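FORM 7B: Structural annotation worksheet

SECTION A. Query
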Amino acid sequence: MGPSTYQVSLKDLFASNRERLTKEIHRHVKGDNDSSKCEYVLYMVGGESTTRYDSDHEPIFRQESYFWYLTGVKEPDCQLILDFSLSSTTCWTVLLVPRLPAEYATIMGAIKTPAQWKTHYQVDEVRFTDEIDHILEQRMLGNQNGGAVGAEPKNRTLLRLKGPNSDSGILYEPPAVPSSLQDMVNDELLFPILAECRVIKSSAELALLRHATEVTSFGHGYVMRNIKPGMMEYQGESLFRHYCYFNFGSRLTGYTSICGCGPNAAILHYGHAGEPNARQTKSGEICLFDMGAEYFCYGSDVTCSFPINGKFSQDQLSIYSAVLSAQKAVYEMIKPGVSWVDCHKTAELEILKGLHSIGIVKTNDNISLEDLVELRLGAVFMPHGLGHFIGIDTHDVGGYLTGLNPPRSTKPGLKSLRTARVLKESMTLTVEPGCYFIDHLLNEALAEESPLRPYLDPKVVEKYRGFGGVRLEDVVVVTKDGCENFTLCPRTPKEVEAVMGGANWPPIRDEAPELRRLRLTDPTTAILPSPPSM
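SECTION B. Predicted structure
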C-alpha cells in the first residue's frame, strides 16, 4: 500500500507457498512407483470480474483464496499453470492474464505488458488466457519445454482443484480443459494437499497475520476509547474501519463487522444487511464488537466485549470473568498434540463454573459440572464452536479434510466446531469462548421435558434475559511447546476500564502474562501509530 504501511515480499510469501506445494506433492507421490515416474502440471483459474446483478457497477474485487495463496495476483480473470518436475524442488510458473482492449486504458489505467506482469509477480512466464487450450496441450502432450504436440510425449498428469469447503459446503469446481486431455486429469490429489498447506502457516504468513491482528487490536482499543452511551452501533464500526484504513491501509475487513449492544450482543452474527448495526446504545449495556482488519488478503478476527459507560456492573463482571477464565484455561492447554474438541469442552467447563457461582447453574451430589459438560449444558450458553482456522479466509480451510482429522460431531455445541483436529505447530486459530442469553435456547433448556431443566434456576435465568452476551476472541498460533497470542487489545476488566477511562495503550506492564500476549510491551509495537485519543 503506502510507503509507511507494512511491506510484503512476494518472493517470501507466494513463491515460498509454491515451493511448499511442490515439496508436498513430491512427498505424497514418493514411493508410488507409477506416480514417481509422472510429471505433474497444475491448472487453476482465479476469481472473475463481476458486476452487481444486471448493472455495470463493479464491486471491489477480492482474489479467490487458493489462487491468492499461490500467486498474490490482485487482478481478476487470471489463470495459473504450475509445471512440476519430480526431479526438482521448484516449479515453472506460468501466469495467464486477459488480453485487454485498448479502450481499457481510458477507463482503468495503463495496460501492463507481459514483461511488466512477469516482473511484478515474479513468475517465470506470462501468457494470455485466450491461449490456454494451446498451452495446456503443448505442456501435456509435447515435451517439457513447450515442444510441438506429439513430440516426445511424457507421462504427465493434469492436476485440478476440486473439493468441498467444510464451512460452506460449497464445492470448488475445477476449470474445463480440452477434450484431448480428459484422460490425463486428476481431480483428487491436489485439494487435500493444497488445503493442508494453507493450514500450516509459513513464517511470512505468520508475520502478516501478526500484523493484521495487531492493527485490529489497536483498532478495537480506539473504539473503546471513543465510544459513548447514546452513539449508534454503526458509529463504533465506523471508528474501527477508519482507524485501520487511515493508519495502515487496510481497505477491507475480513468479514461483516458485528457491533451488537444490549440484547443484540446475543445475536452471533449480528450486523448483516437485515440488522446493520443500527441500534442506539444505552448506558448500562454490554457491547460485543467482533471486527477484523484485512491486509494483503490475510485477515484477523478479534472480538471485544465492554460496558458502554466504561465501568462493569457486577452482573456484567460475573459473565465477563467467566469467559476470560475460559480463554486462560484454553491457553494453558494449547500445544501440538492436543485435541481442539478437548479445548472446547474446557472452555465450556470454565463458563459453567462462572454460571454456577451466580446461581444460574445447579449441581447436586450425583452430578458435577464436568458431567454437565457431557450432558451438553454448555451449548445452551455457548452454541458456537471455540474457534476456527484463520488466514486468507476468516474461516480458513482445512477444518475437516477427509482422512486427516476426526469427523464433525452431531452433539449440540460440538457440531458447530469448525474443526475437530489435533493441534499442530504453526496452525493459526481463533480462541473465542462466549456466554450468551438467547431466549429460544433458554426456553428449550427450561422446557418440562428437557433433561437440562433440573440444572438451571429459572428465576436467576430470568434475571439475565435481555443481557445479551460476552465473547472474547483472540488470534493465536500454535508453537512447538504452547501458543503465542497475536491479539494485543485490552482484555482484563482493569485494562478495559482503564482504556475506556483515558489510559494509554499499550501498557508499560503486562498484568496478565497468562494471556500469552508476547508483544504487548515490546517496544517494536511502537511502529503502530496511535490516533490522537489513544
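SECTION C. Observations
Residues 33 and 295 are 43 Å apart (CA to CA). DSSP finds 16 helices and 19 strands in the chain.

SECTION D. Sign-off
Analyst initials: ____
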